[in-house]
Amino acid sequence: MVDFRRTPNLLSLVCAGSLAILSALLVGFGLATPLPAATASPQQSYNTAPLTPTLYLPLVQRPAPRLLIAAAHIDSAVSGEGDEALWLWNNGPEQVSLTGWQITGNGRTATFPVTSTLTIPSAAGLWCTANPTIFRRTFGFAPECEWGADDDLTVPDLTGSPPRLTNSGGVIQLVSPDGAVADVLVYGNESQIPAGWTGVAAQLYNRGAIGAEGQVWRRKPGAYGSFADTDRAADWSGDVADLAWGRQVFFPGWALWRADWKPPGQPIQVSGTLTLAIGPDGLYEPMAAFLQSAQTSLNLSLYTLEHPLLAQEIAAAAHRGVAVRLLLEGGPTGGISNLQRWCVALIAAAGGQIFYLDRHPDAPNGFRPRYRFLHAKYGIADGVQAFVGTENPTNDSMPAPVGESGPPGRRGVYLFAAAPQVADALAALFAYDWQPELFWDLRPFDPARDGPPEGYTPPDPLPTTPRPAPFRQPVVYSGDFAFHLLAAPEEATRPDNSLVSLLERAGAGDEIRWVQLYEHKYWGDTSSNPVADPNPRLVALIGAARRGARLRVLLDSYFDEPSDDRSNRATVDYLRLVAQFEGLDIQAVTGNPAGAGIHAKAGSLRVGDERWLLVGSLNGGEVSHKINREVSLLVNAPLLYDRLVELFDSDWTNNADR
């Protein structure tokens, strides 16, 4: 046995041999580089002096920068296309300086000069545009650099030639300072595929009522603040082959482009009071009480307002000093009625501020509002109370009660929340949409243009036969609850949004009751089908049934057009066919339980021990999900869930078409 303590030179030999072997392995794998050893004299031996071993150190290398073109606004709808822009994103782990980087677009190259101090941190982005002034008015924030004429002295300039972003198709490249192509976007009708790209050019999604002009190209999200990066069309959100993260649509002015926007997360746990009110039986009184309660501020976002009594309540709030702000759709289907003109003029005369989502007179030619329709129905009072509903304020949806009975009307649902966290979430959404000093799509109320005809007075409601109102009394719950706010268009088609995530957890033993104005059996072109262009929400509902959940679907028959292949009748037939062939516990019917149609967009979902209800403005069509402003509230509150189940089962039993 060797005693290394008594044989130090032998120990040196073993250690040196181990170091040599390790060093050789490191060099062999390219992970180390040899350092020169000290020169030993010929007289040295292992018996007379310790070794001076050759030391190999690991070769430390910085990871290469991973900058991407994360989004591209190429075919702007604005005349002159001054808001053309690229969103550069750092997919790497370290901050990257942009000095010397180049953007090449279809033969023209712009360069970040050596004087540039611009950097992009890890998992962050930076916008460059042709014209910062136009960009700011369409996207809603300032860009970090510009490549056109020096429009804004506060925005750093690129040198060279502005990149050409050809609308029909082309190639955009991001080139590193050493001349290497770091990223490529091949798009549209481009057929010449450059190095760094594989396969066919990327495409925008433009089926059905959604056109390509004005869209923003955007990559699919990756993990941990990154974007997909395989250098092919499948990285981009227009990919029709991807039924989850593909077929997405993006336009300027949406909140998701802001650096502080966050995708949907876990439900928010709060304590407060919730009130569930059902129309037409009992919506008027809770809504009037909400308006009367406002003391300092009242912010309302509505599609239309055609209710004289409620308009008077809003005007009364303005008269007593409440700061009233009303945001309305400027081009509702069928136009703005004289009744709404009267209501809005009354509020404006009392001091309320009114803006329409519409093209501002100062906007350049071609400019389009951020959303196809402002279809939401929500409000916030004093920053602490809020409501979200399925109904536009009309005499049909919120008739004033007569004794214990009520006139026929539209089946709808409202949630009123006395919970600061709910109010805060809705207030943030309202604050984003209400920026008339920034966006060109907010047109102020003009009495000459928007007021009623001279001498107009609201007509008296037509006489009707009173009907029972079994759901007149609202249900009130106080305590702890959880909620999600689901906003379109930013998150309604994300496959990880709160509703889809909940449906994906549903399975054996769970129950889903679904009541809607309409639920299309497919999206895309009107001549398509559920296989080529599935409705993701309907797919998620059927998926829950395939895992064993019990699904009941009640759709409107009053407004329905049965001859349309995307009618509610067609959806009911489709669901019945799926249930029959797959042996699923699905039943679907149409109905008109309250006399003037189902206008609700609601659901009650029992998933495990959770009892959720969904209330909001989001219909089951593609335009609603992808390009409208819509708001729904998803709440885990068992008492209110039970009330919505009671309503559904009553309508299903007594008023459904078979």
List the helices and strands and how they pair.
Elements: H1 8-28, E1 32-34, E2 56-58, E3 67-73, E4 85-90, E5 96-97, E6 102-105, E7 108-111, E8 119-120, E9 125-129, H2 132-139, E10 145-146, E11 159-160, E12 169-175, E13 181-188, E14 217-218, E15 268-279, H3 284-293, E16 297-302, H4 308-319, E17 323-329, H5 338-349, E18 353-357, E19 378-381, E20 385-389, E21 405-406, E22 409-418, H6 420-433, E23 442-444, H7 447-450, E24 467-468, E25 475-488, H8 498-505, E26 511-516, H9 536-546, E27 550-556, H10 568-582, E28 586-591, E29 595-598, E30 601-607, E31 610-616, H11 622-626, E32 630-636, H12 638-655, E33 656-657
Helix pairs in contact: 3-4, 4-5, 8-9
Overview features:
single chain, Immunoglobulin-like, alpha+beta, 21% helix, five-stranded mixed β-sheet, Endonuclease, Chain A, 33 strands, disordered N terminus, 658 residues
